[in-house]
Write a structure and sequence with these properties.
CATH architecture of the largest domain: Alpha-Beta Complex
Number of helices: 9
Protein name: Fumarylacetoacetate hydrolase
InterPro entries: FAH, Fumarylacetoacetase-like_C, Fumarylacetoacetase_C_sf
Number of domains: 2
Radius of gyration: 19 Å
Order of helices and strands: EEEHHHEEHEEEEEHEEHHEEEHEEEH
Keywords: Hydrolase, Metal-binding
Pfam families: FAA_hydrolase (PF01557)
Strand content: 25-35%
Family: Belongs to the FAH family.
Length: about 300
């Protein structure tokens, strides 16, 4: 099944249109939070539905999970990306974990508000947690996944290289997701998906989730050994080679660019880049004035 957010209302999405889940459930499943918090109950309820489809405007789609409790990111988790950084990837070092603040999550058609001159793109598979996970083994880890989405882990490299990894990845609009949540039963192997990214129709990333250093199940096992994963949490699982900072010359996003991100079976994001408004206080300008440390 495909679950979307249509102008703030949770819906099933099909080829023939959308189906309002909040109305159909008489408010029981009024938003993504209530759906994911009661995932097993939702699946039982949804199994008996016979949707009546209504045409919809895709431009009204928002982030399928607009208010996640926790958003995890994983760096250096594709061997191709590790190689382009010049690092030794002969051994499986523990993944580089970080957080993206939930307030940076945006939708599949929302503009990317650029707040610096070194904003980079990273197409990623996003796993959505559907059941509490505490210290779960790899063999049972995928049982805790509700589904998957396409994501963009946008990064201000100057802020990141200044020692502010999570802040550099958490500016408003720096986590486009969607276009819908595809339930896990439709993606039997998350390690067999092609993912691609284009800037203005020029291909810049082309990889496969089979190239992950740590697969989705392993990431859930690793993260849940540290902190509980809760329904509605998001896990950005890493990006393949081709990001802007490691190109020669480096390529960063500019106003007027369009970022298109696609994963097999999950759909496509199309996000236009625009200039963000100037900071309200001169202190905020200091983030934009940082110079990229390439050491």
């Amino acid at each position: 099944m495909r679950i979307g957010n249509l102008a703030g209302v949770p819906v099933f999405l099909g080829d023939a249109g959308a189906y309002d889940l909040a109305t159909a459930s008489a408010g029981r499943f009024a938003d993504a939070r209530s759906i994911l918090a009661g995932w097993d109950e939702f699946l039982d309820w949804a199994a008996g539905l016979r949707p009546e489809w209504t045409p919809y405007d895709p431009a009204l789609l928002g982030p399928p999970v607009p208010d996640p409790g926790q958003v995890f990111g994983v760096g250096l988790n594709y061997t191709s990306h590790v190689a382009e950084t010049g690092r030794d990837h002969g051994t499986r070092a523990l993944p580089q974990g970080f957080t993206k603040f939930p307030s940076c999550v945006s939708g599949p058609c929302d503009p990317i508000e650029l707040r610096g001159h070194t904003v980079d793109y990273e197409v990623e598979l996003v796993a959505v947690v559907g059941r509490h996970a505490v210290d779960v083994p790899v063999a049972r880890a995928l049982d805790h996944v509700a589904g998957y989405m396409v994501g963009q882990d946008l990064s201000d490299r100057a802020v990141q290289r200044a020692g502010q990894l999570s802040l550099g990845k958490s500016f408003r609009t720096y986590a486009p997701t969607g276009p819908w949540l595809v339930s896990r039963d439709e993606i039997p192997d998350p390690q067999a998906l092609a993912l691609r990214c284009w800037i203005n129709d020029e291909p810049v990333q082309d990889g496969t989730t089979a190239d992950m250093v740590y697969g989705v199940a392993e990431l859930i096992a690793l993260l849940s050994a540290i902190t509980p994963l809760r329904p509605g949490d998001l896990i950005f699982t890493g990006t393949p080679a081709g990001v802007g900072i490691f190109r020669d010359p480096p390529r960063f996003l500019r106003p007027g660019d369009e970022v298109r991100s696609e994963i097999t079976g999950l759909g496509t994001l199309r996000n236009a880049c625009v200039a963000a408004p100037a900071p309200a206080d001169p202190l905020g300008q200091r983030w934009r004035d940082l110079k990229l440390d390439r050491s």
